[in-house]
Amino acid sequence: MQNNFIVSTSPHIHTKESTSKIMWLVVLSLIPAGIAGIWIFGKSALWVIILGISAAVITEGVLQLLTKRKLTIFDGSAILTGLLLAYNLPPKVPFWLPIAGSFFAIAIGKQIFGGLGQNIFNPALVGRVFLMASWPKYMTAFTKPFDAITQATPLAALREGKILENISYLDLFLGKRGGCIGEVCILALLLGAAFLLIRGYISWHIPVTYIATTGIFVYVFAGKALFSGDWLFHILSGGLILGAFFMATDYVTSPLTRKGQIIFGIGCGILTAVIRLWGGYPEGVSYAILMMNAATPIIDRYTKNRVYGTR
Amino acid sequence: MKKYFAEFTKGIIKENPTFVLALGLCPTLAVSVSLINGIGMGIAATFVLLGSNIIISLIKNFIPDRIRIPCFIVVIATFVTIAEMTMKAYSPVLDRALGIYVPLIVVNCIVLGRAEAFAQKSSVLNSLLDGLGMGVGFTLALLLISGIREFLGAGKLLGHGIFKGFEPVFVLGMPSGALLVIGLLLGFFNLLKNRKT
Amino acid sequence: MNPAQLLTIFISAVFIYNVILSRFLGLCSFIAISKETKPALAMSLSVMFVTTMASIITWAIYRFLLIPFGLTYLRTISFILVIATFVQLVEMVIRKISPPMYRFFGIYLPLITVNCAVLGVAVLNSDMFFVKGKAVPGSFIYSLFQGICVGLGYTLAMLLMSGIRERLDLCDVPQAVKEFPLAFIIASIMSLSFMGFNGFRF
Fold first, then answer.
1. 3-state secondary structure of B188
2. pLDDT tens across A68-124, in order?
3. Does A5 map to a domain?
4. Where are the domains of chain B?
5. Residue C191: closest C-alpha in chain A
6. What are the chain B neighbours of A68 within 8 Å (beta carbons)?
């Protein structure tokens, strides 16, 4: 019987068009968080976002023109990278910082590997750690919400042993705390994430295992005695929600199979918790995700689906 | 004559120890933070390379193959000690700047690498040229890398500040930045090479 | 002998202060041999064997020869000679077992001798587990274990890098950065990520 249907196991190759559509939808789902960030931190946040996105798009365009490769600046991925990088920055950074970060993110984090689909590391995070290593004093100066006074983030304050007065879980949830532009308003982030999850553009495996692992680890080890850690505080603080739903889930840099994704999520969770609790930095999300990005090719290799018919 | 010249120049470009052979990376990463350190290390390493290549080539027929590696190490260590003592006597400032990296020339892959790959099977003259070429190549690589790292990563050159208001790119002063600089330089050289052909 | 110390050694050597990605020792073979996973693992195994054996013998030399006779300034050179002998041994074995692998490694096998990782762990052991010229209780087990763990850390870095490079082999990478340049850049980004472990304190 002639076989008119092609049946194969996933993963399937996506066409360029649908990749682009997904990129734009992720950008869309991130807009609430950006609006919240601008409302909480003021006009300078808007500038950081604009500069971040423009620098990313221009860098990609120029590099692709110079290397005579196809222009992909309209597929939404450069814009997404610029946006995510901006969301990972404090609101009052000098104008050249998001430009340098986006340039590095696109040039070294993405284009040097050959462009979209071939990068190993999440470009926005590559940009962020580059900025963190190069200009730490700008990357760690945060401001009080609705104000221009500098104030430590909740995680940084916890590290020093002081708890910020009058911060409730509701404050953390709504974003009334110092931090990076796109990470503070959990409500807005969850709205966007819910949209992506419901429409099936991201799956729950990575974010849920990531957040749960961090929460459990923190519950066990963060408190003065075992099993007394403030897991809700940790989940609502720092860049965990932003990272788990929007950066760890990046198709290109995370494993293909469900099993691999769960391993990825657990790895990210443990690394984030370990750095937060015992490392030198108060926040470990960027580093954790990048380390697991590096492990993704090996994870994929050892969790490959068995091709039907072979051993 | 041309052949001898080629033996010398191969270490500078075609088989540059840092960029092409990926040798001597650990000291390169650590030392290339400033230009003066790069120069000092380059000269010291060249001296050791020259000495060890020549001696090993001279005694190559007397070293049993089974224990050749320890024998090479003894020769290399001798020259490193000479270099270290000379540096301590004539330039204590440089010696202090380079610190433990002078004795660590003993474990600089380039020196043992050339002894193993070349000097033990070549004539004394060729080994001399090879050692000199590799040393010069290594020094040039160090100059290039440390020049960039000091200029952009610390805003200085040979210890002198360049412009005001320049926010140095700190990551370039770290090993990660060094790896980045080496990778980008190498890519740039490849680009030039591909254009030529 | 403290089992918690063993756990600390394991986590530090393999992850927090990874010999390649945080201490930047052993880079030459890391860049050169990490293109494919099989040779990478073979090299890692060889390095782990050498680090383990070197840890044992250098410990003994330090404890019974250098310290009692006041010759600790000869530490570097005596350690290197021990390591050189072991690498010679490993080379003979590999030559016999697998000539193609031996040819593939080329210069990088004898270069394990000067692989900073090996000398590094020997020196680290003598710094960490000897206080004021006296061996800390259990220092032999700690040194041996650290030797093994540094080898494991080396293996981890090689495994990650070879996985990445094998995947990139299938991609359309710009011509100018194929092979070594991209390897350096990947190493740069990997070490940037491992900076997350800076300032670690249990």
1. helix
2. 878 877 878 899 999 999 999 998 889 999 999 999 999 999 988 888 888 899 999
3. no
4. 2-144
5. A291
6. none
